[in-house]
Amino acid sequence: MKLKSRIGQYLQANLAVFILIVFIFAAGIISGALGINSLSQQQQLDLLNYVDTVLQGSGDWQVDSLGLAKTAVWSNIKLMLLIWFLGLTVVGIPVVGVVVFLRGAVLGFTVGFLVQEKAFAGVLLTILSVLPQNLIFVPALLLAAISSVAFSLQLLQGKFSRGLVLSQYLLGYTVLFGVVMGVVSLGGLVEAYISPAFIKLIAVYF
């Protein structure tokens, strides 16, 4: 509860950055959803056939959950490490924005396509196999991006006049990212162990 309160205070103190990052992510989601219309009919058909093939073959899956978990967790951690590093560079602020936008676009495209092409089955797929890990990953991503941009802005504005203050802030910044990496690791485990099980369940009925 204390950690949650501190995060709330931190976000409030960086409200402008918070609004900017959320706006960029929302713009990514909208762009991804609208991007479906830019696909040709053949591209949409090919993608739909791929989804159908995955669903139809899911019952015979022999999922290497441990291997999938390692890949998903490490992928998430590498992304957080990149965002952490970009926060130290000052010039990385636009790159953080691009990362957030692209993750939003991928999510928007995935959800939009499933719902548009698979109707009720697409809604179920979204709720049971896309949202679980993203309900964990997305807030962590946004917090990481906000922290990265806020730290860069502090450096850019020269607010660290003493080495001790900078070292303390850097320590807090790094500890926060340690927590974030723990959270996204949990998201990776959900993606590896829970989402495939839900896909198998849905495929039985559709």
UniProtKB/TrEMBL annotation:
What is one Pfam family matched by this protein?
A: SpoIIM
Arranged from A to Z, the UniProt key words for this protein are: Membrane, Transmembrane, Transmembrane helix
In the UniProt record, the signal sequence range is none
Does the keyword field hold Transmembrane? yes
- Residues annotated as transmembrane: 12-36, 81-102, 109-130, 136-156, 168-190
* Designated name of the protein: Stage II sporulation protein M
What organism does the record attribute this protein to? Metallumcola ferriviriculae
